[in-house]
Every structure is written in C-alpha cells, then in structure tokens.
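Annotated sample (chain length 225).
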Amino acid sequence: MRVKVKQKKSVAQDIDIVPQDCKESWVYTNIVKDHFFHPQNLVTDANKISGYSGLGMVGSPACGDMMKIWVWIDQKTDRLKKMKWQTFGCGSAIAATSMLSVMVTEKGGMKVDQALKIRPQDITQRLGTLPVRKIHCSVLGDKALRSAINNYFVRTKQKSRIIEESARMVDKFARVTDRDIEEAVLEGAKDLDAVQKKTKVGIGHPELIPEVEQLIRFYSEKYFG
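Output written by the structure step:
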C-alpha cells in the first residue's frame, strides 16, 4: 500500500499519513515519531545479549508481527532494571515497545507486579494516542513482557507467580500449539526432526516450517541458553 505524508499546520506538528484511495487519515504524535525514528533499548544483535533474567516472545515472523523481549530484574528489590527488545513489527509496534521499555525502567525500575498490570491503553496514553486501526500494535509489547517475566519466575523457581497465557495454534491440521512445541523442546527435542516426531507439526505443510523452526530456536535459547 502506498502512502503520502503531509505536514499538518498545527502546534503539535503531528504527521498525517493518508493511505492511497482512502479518506481516513492516520495521525501520529511527535512522541510516536520520536520513538519510531529513535527507538529506546532496541537490540540490533541478539548474539551480544547475555546475563538477562528472563526472555519472552510473542507472534511469528512467518505470519507478520513478532516481538522478543529480554529483562534484567533485581531479585532483592523485585524491580525491572533493564529491558531490551527486537521486533519485526510496524512503526507503531516499534514506537509502542520503545515507550514500554522506558516505562518499566524509569525512576529506578518498575516493580514486577506493577509491570504485569501494564495494559496497551497505558502505553498508548504515554504515546499521546495511536490511530484506532494501529492500537493492536501496542499489544505485542505487553504480552512479550509478561512472557519474559514468566520466564524469570521459572528461572528463579517462583512458580506460584507464573501467569498462565493461552496457547496459540501453530498447526491447525495437526492441532499443535506453541505450548506443545515448547514442551517438546523442554523434553529434549532440539531440532525440527525431533519436534516433528513428538508433535507431527508441519508434516505435509511445509509453509509452517519457518515458524516452527523459529519457535524451536526461541525455546532452546529461553531454557538452555
């Protein structure tokens, strides 16, 4: 889809993006623009990341948007001291996650229980709003953050604090979810052949293999480093 960008004559100097052949405009605030063009805590090389407390991921690069978050938590104070992230998402997802990383680490770091309560609306409010059709982009970050904190709970044996997240269907033909693939990796399946032997995921449907392989790599890193 082509878009044309025009500068509005307003005090806020928001950017008005008008999709071709569409009367509706998408207005992005200066805050959104700043976090998109200058994202905070963005990871460009995941191989350089180490010593993190928890790792979380949601979405799929094979399907479109994907978000990966690393957190560093001070176990004594139960505060998030640092958050890093990667995404294959759009500009709104980039801006929303950049803002989220600032929100959870500012003022000495947010308490873990408080961070778990962050809603997409909280992120959008700090951004000064997002176009209605782009609100869903702010959901990736808070879900990935909860996933990373859950991983921290597992690593530190705080199982009573784990928040159960609903499983996502990866292979509707074999009825295999991301949770099934996660369990297969935990049981020792470290490559595609091993995971397929346990779950039958992607057999006969090669278009699903890139996502399955991405999940295998993610869960292997999450639990085995």
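Annotation: The CA atoms of residues 15 and 225 lie 42 Å apart.
Annotation: The two ends are 40 Å apart (CA to CA).
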